[in-house]
């Protein structure tokens, strides 16, 4: 069996595997797609001490760094079931889609999350060419330009407030007749001169010139009429979905489906840890996921050295 088995090969999983392997313990990492969300990212400018890099390059470096250590890498493997140990200190089991079963003394779950997409024409085509999902990451790219934020929940309204300080103009588009964000955020938003709020509106298309976004079309749900807005950027803020469908019966999840962890990264089950975007940790970012993955690995090691020899 493994001493530490990491599930997920994004920044959190890669950091966890490296920190575990550096303790000289038997470490494995299984990932559906090594690199995770980083593979879908173009420019990265907030990975501290690296002024600028690109997603695919950083993903390759993550994998190379893990390969420098004695880690059993199982890429293109999807985990579909976690069976936690029945007795404290017993082995946990992870079943893979290919039928294999992996056993480990400790597990680190780092299966990440995915941004919910609008699913409208143009969204995929202009992803990273004006269509963005992360205001902390891509906001500065739209300095002085016009953008829309899709979604009037807390994350959408926070994004609109954040972007209003950087860009020329923000249009916030909400499907319902009211914003769903906290009142204090709505008041702040309403006080900003360069923000326009459109409610009861369904975005129906991302418009582009073949190279980049030039606008969007939305349907006014009250009058069933179509309208166009000219702009350079669209931030989609309609939810970040944690990849925890396979864990529902195994460990405690928050109402949003995120893995609940304590300050050491431990889940509701002893010996099972979690890190990164898949957890309740606030702010989903690469540097944060790496820190959380490292922390989970150190916690797993700490847990293991206290186990009575089996
Ligand atoms: P992820 O990167 O999501 O990795 C999850 C891993 O788990 C993957 O290997 C995946 O294949 C695997 N996995 C999922 N389910 C299973 C399963 N059942 N079995 C096995 N493996 C599984 N952050 C920044 O800091 N700066 C940026 O500029 C930036 N730009 C971004 C741009 C875009 C377009 C996106 C989508 C995100 C961006 N982010 C950025 C956010 C950043 O990518 C994430 O915070 C970070 O990747 C989270 O790392 P993670 O390891 O927790 O999860």
Descriptive report:
It is a single chain. By secondary structure, this protein is α/β, with parallel strands linked by helices. The chain folds into two domains: 2-114 and 240-305, FAD/NAD(P)-binding domain (3-Layer(bba) Sandwich); 117-236, FAD/NAD(P)-binding domain. The protein is 22% helix and 29% strand. The strands form five sheets. Strands 1, 2, 5, 6, 7, 8 and 19 form a seven-stranded mixed beta sheet that branches. Strands 10-17-11-12-13 form a five-stranded parallel beta sheet, with helices on one face. The protein has a three-stranded antiparallel beta sheet with strand order 14-15-16, with no helix packed on it. Helix 1 runs parallel beside helix 2. The longest helix has 20 residues, at 286-305. Flavin-adenine dinucleotide is lined by residues 7-13, 30-34, 36-38, 40-41, 44, 46, 78-79, 110-113, 115, 133-134, 137, 243, 246, 276-278, 284-287, 289. Flavin-adenine dinucleotide binds next to helix 1, strand 2, strand 9 and helix 6. Homodimer. FAD binds at residues 3-18, 267-277.
């Amino acid at each position: 069996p493994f001493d530490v088995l990491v599930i997920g090969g994004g920044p959190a999983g890669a950091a966890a595997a490296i920190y575990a392997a550096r303790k000289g313990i038997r470490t494995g990492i299984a990932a559906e797609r090594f690199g995770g969300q980083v593979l879908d990212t173009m420019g990265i400018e907030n990975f501290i001490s690296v002024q600028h890099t690109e997603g695919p390059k950083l993903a390759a470096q993550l994998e190379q760094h893990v390969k420098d250590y004695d880690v059993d890498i199982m890429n293109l493997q999807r985990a579909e079931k976690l069976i936690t140990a029945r007795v404290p200190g017993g082995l946990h089991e992870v079943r893979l889609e290919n039928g294999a079963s992996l056993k480990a003394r400790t597990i680190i779950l780092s299966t990440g999350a995915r941004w919910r997409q609008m699913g409208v024409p143009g969204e995929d085509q202009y992803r990273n060419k004006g269509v963005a999902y992360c205001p902390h990451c891509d906001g500065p790219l739209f300095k002085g330009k016009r953008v829309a934020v899709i979604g009037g929940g807390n994350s959408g309204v926070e994004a609109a407030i954040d972007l209003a300080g950087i860009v020329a103009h923000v249009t916030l588009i909400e499907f319902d007749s009211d914003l769903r964000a906290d009142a204090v955020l709505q008041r702040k938003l309403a006080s900003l001169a360069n923000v326009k709020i459109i409610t009861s509106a369904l975005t129906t298309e991302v418009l582009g010139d073949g190279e980049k976004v030039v606008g969007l079309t939305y349907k006014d749900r009250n009058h069933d009429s179509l309208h166009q807005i000219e702009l350079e950027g669209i931030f989609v803020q309609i939810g970040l979905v944690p990849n925890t469908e396979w864990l529902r019966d195994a460990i405690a999840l928050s109402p949003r489906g995120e893995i609940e962890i304590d300050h050491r990264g431990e889940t509701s089950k002893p010996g099972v840890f979690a890190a990164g975007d898949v957890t309740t940790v606030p702010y989903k970012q690469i540097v944060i996921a790496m820190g959380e993955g490292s922390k989970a690995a150190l916690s797993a090691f700490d847990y293991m050295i206290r186990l009575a020899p089996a």
